[in-house]
Amino acid sequence: MTKEIKVAENTYWVGYVDDRKVPFHRLTLEKGTTYNSYLLKTEKPTVIDTVDISFGKVFIDRLSEHIDPAEIKYIVINHVEPDHSGGLPALANKAKDAVIVTTELGAKELKEMYRLYDREFLIVKDGDKLDIGGKQLIFFETPYLHTEETMITYCIEDKVLYPCDIFSSHVATYELFNDLALEDITEDFEVYYQLIMHPHRPYVQDMIKKIENLEIETIAPSHGYILRNNPQKYIDIYDKMSRATNKEKRALILYSTMTGNTRNIAKQLRDGLEEKQITTKVINIKKNTDIDKIKDEIKNSDAIFFGSSTRYGDIVGGMEDVLKELAEIDLSDKLGVAFGSYGWSGEAVEVINDYLKESSIKIVDSSLIIKNTGMDNLQFPIRVKFSPGEVESQSLKGSAYIVGDLLLA
Fold first, then answer.
1. What is the pLDDT of residues 237-286, one digit of tens each?
2. 329 and 274 assigned to the same domain
3. Neighbours of 286 (CB within 10 A)
4. Which residues pair with 139 in a beta bridge?
5. How many CB atoms lie within 10 A of CB 180?
6. Of 216, 315, 319, 342, which sits most exposed with the smallest number of CB within 10 A?
């Protein structure tokens, strides 16, 4: 039997230390990593997160040294990526009556990933509590930290926060606790934040607001060190590194419209950018035809949105005159976004995007967003059929937020 690693009263680490050079998100983790999983041996035994899908058998063997897996009543999955949920199929096979606790989107993804359609799920939302017999868990949704379905779990009696990827570090450590570390872990902690969390930093601030009134004595993340010595230090690091800089960023929205639908899109994009504290100027090309002044505005902006309605498969107004000038301007330090409304096929947005590809501007498209944020629910270029309704308006705001985040990153 391996040595018991106690995290809190009747709570044990049952994870796996991966001391290889680990491939991860197109990187190589030179120091390896840990996959931290936790067993709460209460009246209703509960596992919080599992390990990477490669180590399911080792995980079950370690867990079985503490408890017969068949006794487990709840399996909490904070985040569905396979480096955290990968041990779930092996565990679910042994803990046949266990209820899986996660967010609504988390349940949908877990069912699809692991074919768990016949399992019982408990869907939790912000502030929901779960009595596991002697201890209470409280849950908070933390979307986009770093994927949409993510949540965090807090044990009220133990004052332990289980935040999955949040507050993690990629280090293969057999010491496991930060007060036992053989060297200062701050650099590893900050590097992890920059690589994984910083692209989502507005959501970091949302998370900090949710936990600010919790009494936290230990942070037990899913990678790297368990933070039981001065956990507030690491919360403060996230707070400081995720705050907006004072450097002003500017966006320019150029559009040409036929019936006003593209103008409505431009206004909603402006509103979203301004909520992100991005100074934004909107110009109707049909009413402002001075190309030289428009070129000056483009040069003075950090992100430029080019929008047009579609008429007979083409762009409208004087937008094409502006687009033809772009190849002659150095736009290498700027972001470019194509948008527009349409009634049928919507070719105008694609024509705009073709012009952007011929310039030096960095085009914001779905590929760029997925690579930088992991978010796949927003589509770029931005195309809206007719006038934006409630659903489209929310999507436009999300699109503006994302571009704002890219500017502020």
1. 999 998 866 568 999 999 999 889 999 999 999 999 998 889 999 999 98
2. yes
3. 15
4. 153
5. 13
6. 216
